[in-house]
Amino acid sequence: MHQPPVPALSAADPEVARLVEAEARRQFEKIRLIASENYVSRAVLEATGTVLTNKYSEGYAGRRYYEGQQVVDPVETLAADRAKRLFAVDHANVQPYSGSPANLAVYLAFLEPGDTVMGMALPMGGHLTHGWNVSATGKWFRSAQYGVRRDTGRVDLDEVRDLALRERPKVIFCGGTAIPRTIDFPAFAAIAREVDAVLVADIAHIAGLVAGGAHPSPVGHAPVITTTTHKTLRGPRGAMILADAAHAKAVDKAVFPGLQGGPHNHTTAAIAVALGEASTEGFRTYAHDVVANARALAAALAHRGFDLVSGGTDNHLILVDLTGKGIGGKPAAKALDRAGIEANYNTVPYDPRKPFDPSGLRLGTAAITTRGLGPDQMPQLAAWIDAAVQAAGDEALLDRIAAEAAELMAAYPMPGWA
Q: Which annotated residues bind (6S)-5,6,7,8-tetrahydrofolate (predicted)?
């Protein structure tokens, strides 16, 4: 059953309670390989469900527009202080509701409508809010987009520099949503200095790896850093903006009053808890284990003939091009879900297919590492993935794999389920 128990919810609204229970069971039984998902601790779950959700707190600690902030102010200060210590930054704003509003705050802080922003193109692994054309950031600002090389699947920093010199952006984003390789923050910083742009490192996917020392930090290279607080950081669904002292005031003003009203105080408390957990030696071990599992799974998939974008991974994320397997990413993802394995279909660089029916799968190892799986289990996961992809439409085989997957996961505890 769901942990902590929800007896009041069950009594007041049994329909919603049944859905919560069903989701908890689903998360327990599935092999969750979606790169942007994880399991939070029971402590984070409990913090998220506290009476802090009742309090409205426009403004910042010590400078609120509502009374009754004697408890909320220390909660937000604690979260910000923990973020500053963990990432070794001058300033942390823990109020953004999610990653997209955090990135929008960057635009408001450092750009005017029509200014040029440079980021990685969405089909190459970037994020919608890095200036892609269907996003407000691509409609309200002039966007210059870089990609990856066809032959390597990696960013060519000489091409990035050429683009920056030609387009003269005021802000450059590095990072994205489907980048399996280490981000070269020093090289991006050098390019940004050359064109007098603000470098923004979007580390939403790798924040936990950075905190745990399993990926280089952008601190000292990017004066502004945005991140979500879930994914590899293993916190609630929220976001932060980290900044050096010179950029802190503009960031704070952009978040409030520029974009948001009162922060979600229950989420802020849960962020504080997650940041405390991420400061432990156990979390450092976890971060390195995430990368070890991703590399082991990538190697096992490559052994089975899967084409991996860039040839492998340096972090938690694997991007698979299924063209050689003769199946699109969407039917493959649906077959895997039926087989008890969660993944998401995803575009791959230079994808000839449409975004809603692309050629790729995106896999991640953050959640299964939280459950306790290790490199020894990765060949079995690759075997099930291979069988499910090849057997799309064979319902009996997919059901058999799902039963075997659930049996495997039953041996690994899940925070939030007992």
A: 122, 126-128
